[in-house]
Amino acid sequence: MELILVLSCLIPPLVLIHLLSLPRMGGLFGLKVLVRRVMLSLLLAFWNILTGQGAFGPVYKAQMSTGEIVAVKVLATDSKQGEKEFQTEVMLLGRLHHRNLVNLVGYCAEKGQHMLIYVYMSKGSLASHLYSDKHEPLSWDLRVYIALDVARGLEYLHDGAVPPVIHRDIKSSNILLDQSMRARVADFGLSREEMVDKHAANIRGTFGYLDPEYISTRTFTKKSDVYGFGVLLFELIAGRNPQQGLMELVELAAMNAEEKVGWEEIVDSKLDGRFDIQEVNEVAAFAYKCISRAPRKRPNMRDIVQVLTRVIKVRHCRKRQKSSLSSPRPPPPPPVVEESEGELTANGSIRSETHRRDNSVDSSIAEDL
Q1: pLDDT digit string (tens) for 231-255?
Q2: What SMART domains is this protein classified in (predicted)?
Q3: Annotated catalytic residue 159
């Protein structure tokens, strides 16, 4: 049986949420609980599908009356983020819609209780896939796909949203993966519209990903997001986070690397040599431009999307050529590539699992290449 919760402060009103896999506690099932009232303590006590814990508070898995699986973020009483961040996230996500952003389903904000209801991302965070032994290592090809997904999400925030939005907290734990391993940017609590509030008295964000220019001037710009994205790219390459000496490793490698040569020395050992050296060097050299100390020397997100798209196109062409040389059968026809809402798409392919996303370019072409 299931415990049914009526979230009367959701949009639209009176949306039902069913809690899954609750412990079988006598007398609880069938109760209706108004989450906006004191019964929230009952929810927190018996809702046992905890999927994550962030600065905002715990994140739970639930199912809406429509059958849609969702994630519910509940503001903790001792949260590092407060009502201002909550309002920011609701306001921004209410008007931001993109396939590479985690979409907001609804929210609850009454009598001091704060909840955010999101589309559920079944594969968890990028950080968990990079650092947890519970997951198989991400392939190199998939890491580049994920980087492109994140870049597209940020490009939309910077160039597609009106007014533009600066995320301000790009990091691997804020990148979530859906069932088909498509990456989406999450956690907009620290985000700011570019035209409103560029300056802050206190440093906000995550150390290791913070733009040095922001630390010294307290001014956050689009190029600050680019810096954080550059750090994320090196995380994908090296399988190491900033708290594990990532940037020291990068700077040491940069001293020995010549533009697009030599970066393979920092590649994640979990890849066990299964990567294209030329591709790694190109991505790493570009990532190093993203973390330039001088913001004006960093590329913008549109440039980054174009570079990563080209990397994947070149990869596909090389694999097709190799396939045509090794197989007596004629190679498949080239993909029909179209521009759609700022993204490259191709007809006829559906990605459902990690290996399918890795190989879809070779078989019938991934939908977003």
Answers
A1: 999 999 999 999 889 999 999 999 9
A2: S_TKc
A3: no
